[in-house]
Structure formats: C-alpha cells, structure tokens
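Title: [Solved] ABC3 transporter permease C-terminal domain-containing protein 3D structure

Original question kept below for reference.
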Amino acid sequence: MKFIVHNLRMIRARLRSNGWVLAELFLVFIVMWFLCDSLGCLKYTFYRPLGYNIDHVYQLSMIKGGESRDSSMTSADKYLGILQKLEREPAVEVAALSYWSLPMSGNNSYNSLAVQDTIGCAVRIINATGGYTRVFRMKEDAGRPFAAMPVGNDVTSGNYVMLSEGAADYYKERVPGFSLDTPLSWYGDSANVVIQCGMIGSFRSYRYGADAEWAFRRIDENVIRTELRDDGAQIVFRVKENMDSPDYRSKFLKEIAPHLDTDNMFIADVVPYTEQQYQFEVMKGDVDKVNTQTVVVVFLLVNVFLGLIGTFWFRTRRRRNEIALRLAMGSTKKQIFCLLMGEGLLLLTLVTLPAMIVCYNVGIAEFTMGHTELITTWPVKWSFLRFLLGSLGAWLLIALMVVIGIWFPARQAIKIQPAEALHEE
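Solution (posted by the thread starter after getting help):
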C-alpha cells in the first residue's frame, strides 16, 4: 500500500509530464481494445467448430454426353442409379443426393417458415436423402435421426421439417414457449401445417459465418423422380478413413468412375470437399477481406507497440540522473527497478477504468444503433464477457509494452556510478 501511495505522489509531482503520458495511454487503450476485440472475434469465428466434418468427403461432378441410349430413363433415374452404385462401393461409408443444398456452395433456395403465421424466419431449405447428415457428420438426435423422418408429398409442399439449432434459437428468442412440438407454417399459408420432426445441432455454413438457419426435408426416390431438375442434383459421399489417401481422387477416376456411368451420364471429376471450401471462401471474397483486415490490425498493432515503447524508453532515460542519485542515497537496484515498473503500470491502471467506460459505450452504440460496421462485422454476439476479454487483452498488451519500454533503459541506468551521477547533478 505504501508503495502505491509513494508512486501516486511521484505521479502527482510530475503531473505536467505525466498528463501527456496518461492521455496517450487513454487513447492507446481504446485503440488496443478495438484491435483485440476485432482480431479476437475473427480468430474465434474462424477456429470454432463448424458443426460438421468435411474430411474424407467428396462431391461428384457429372456431365451428359451424346444421345441417350435408353429413352425410358429420366434424369432422376440416372442420378439415382449413380447414387445406388456409389453406395455399394467398398470404400464408401455413406452417400447422399441433395438438391441445391450443400454447405459452402453458391447453390441454395430459401423460404419463410412462420410460427402462429406472424413470426417468420427466412430459412435455407435443405432437400436431401437420408444419408446427408451422416456424410457431413452433423449432430442429430439419436432417437429422431434425419434418415428416419417422414417424407413430404413433394419438394414444394412437403409438410415435415427438421430445424437447425440456429433456426430453433431464432424462434425461441421471439416466441415464448417455442419447442420442437410447436407447429409451423409456410409464411402466408397458415392452412398448410408444417410438423417438426427433430433438430440438427448448431452449425455454420462456412468458417466465417454465423450459426446457420436451415430447415431440412428428406426426399426419396418418388420425390426425386417427380420434382428433380437436371441442374439441381448434387451427390456427395464420405470415404472410409482407412481407405482414403492423397491419391484417392486419381484412383477413383481411373478405377471406380467408369463403373458409375449411367446411360449418357458420366463422372467428370470427384472433388475433395476441403478444396471446395477454399474455392467458396475465395469466391465470396472472405479470404481477401480477412487477409486485408489482419494486415491492417497487425500494422496498427506494430505502430502502437513501437510508439508506446518509445515513449517509456525516452521517459526512463531522461530520469537517469534521478536513478543514480537514488542509488547514492542508499536505494537498492531492485527497489529502483520496482519503483519504475510500478509507476508505469500504475499510470496504465489509472486510465483503464475511464477508457473501458468509453469502449463499452462504443460497443453498445454499435450494436444498438448500427450506424457503422466497426464492430458489427464480426458474427459474435455482443456481451459483457466479450467486452471484458477484449479489455483484458488490451491491458495485457499495453502492460507488456510499458514493461519493455522501462526494462532496458532502466537496466542501463542503474549501472551508473553514484559518484558520476552526483558530479553531473
């Protein structure tokens, strides 16, 4: 306690010079909080679990060529034929056919599901066969798996769905008492009751996205044959882990693909889903956006780092004679070193609370008014915990800068001989 009081008296005695340091630390804390919040949310969003697994998952690329050898076969028959042959392959764990429904793809369709015909949510509609959730290893209720849910009459009027956890949370926030037993309807069509058959665990459409709001509908051969269009079919499959290898793609095209060809429908390629993930993120511009943002954050971080270290370095070197004089009066090197460090960290502590108040109000204003995108660009909900973590990160980084800025010049200053200091004084 005496140590803190002594440091406060020292700061007050040098109020004019310390005032500029306090002002600089105040501004630096606000900037550092924003950088820590932005970079922290970015990294959290990027690295947190997707909610599904794309390792060992491949997508077929199919083309039509020439005249059909069997005029009785429809496009749906050909897609189903390829799917059935693929499912019989020893290396294939599970396969699925979907209709404009794959994650990390530009193909999608939306509709609005409503509760009480008033509160609607624009959900992405997933039309897929029963193996879809197992291909991507999505979390589902073992008692009500997607593969066992009823099939609607057709794609456009099917009345059974499974909501993603993100969609269910959307309704729970707006409708008290919402549960998986709550009936839904297509927005504006309250006569067509939609029955919930379960829920798929929380997941994101891609690495930079927020929790997805999807509605899953299972389709079967009848629906595929009556509703499927040529440009909407997508076949994906998961390879058994012990049978996957870096050269699996070339082996598949050489040894397996020719056996899957059906009539005039041919396998052109088989693409690892990890490759599609990267292509999708590049297409959306997220890779460039994140890289640019990271460069800007690092650039600002380095500038703040060098500027603050320089301030305390210069400040400590100017007090070289004072340090030597204290040594001559009987202070130990450890006492002087702790005194300088304590003064620097105390200066930071004095501005922390006022700066945190400013930062918190900036965060509140961003999320309530939304006039700019300084903070709202990150798909992480604003919370007091997020604010505290950003503040803690800012304080620790600035404290590190202060320590480095004092450490080296202080070590040099305490080596001065007291006699030399008294002569200079």
